[in-house]
Sequence to fold (197 residues):
Amino acid sequence: MTKQLLSRVSAVALLAMLGGCVSLGGAEVPESLITLTPTSISPAGSTSSGTLASAIAVIEPDAPQRLNVTRVPVQVTDAKIAYLQNAVWVEKPARLFRRLLAETISARSNRLVIEGADPDLSAQTRLYGNLLDMGYDVATSSVVVRYDAIREFTNGEIQTRRFESVVPGVAAEAGAVGPALNQAANDVAVQVADWIG
Fold:
């Protein structure tokens, strides 16, 4: 009897110690996560080749703090933002957008695309910029993706251009906003790829 009591007391003490390390409650896990899936993709078995002179390096864009999280921002008024309930990115949107840009440019051109900023691979052309918006606008019930692109050449020439896509008539819920964000981001990526040539 004493052995059983000691065993139960030990088990309770162990659980109490683990309580400080493990959270059994915590925040609810979302039913699904949002990602960006390219509509322009290179088919399996396709290859790219070229020289650094013809290659383009796609750098992760900068983003304001409201986009530097895994939640989807909602523009409530000109001066107020919130985050859409149950809408969570699989990772930060700027990183997802860079991958989408790289895949789209690769699929729509014959250029060698290098992702990231590896100093040993100094491509002749670099694409970077600012992801200004990738969220939901309450006033217009729409999803907005806005990107300021900067194309830099090794000879010092710089070109800039703003790209935008708006998908109107979207309900303010994760199930509708996620696909609309993917649509708008793909539209912007195609515009950028066509500009790059």
Notes: The two ends are 81 Å apart (CA to CA).
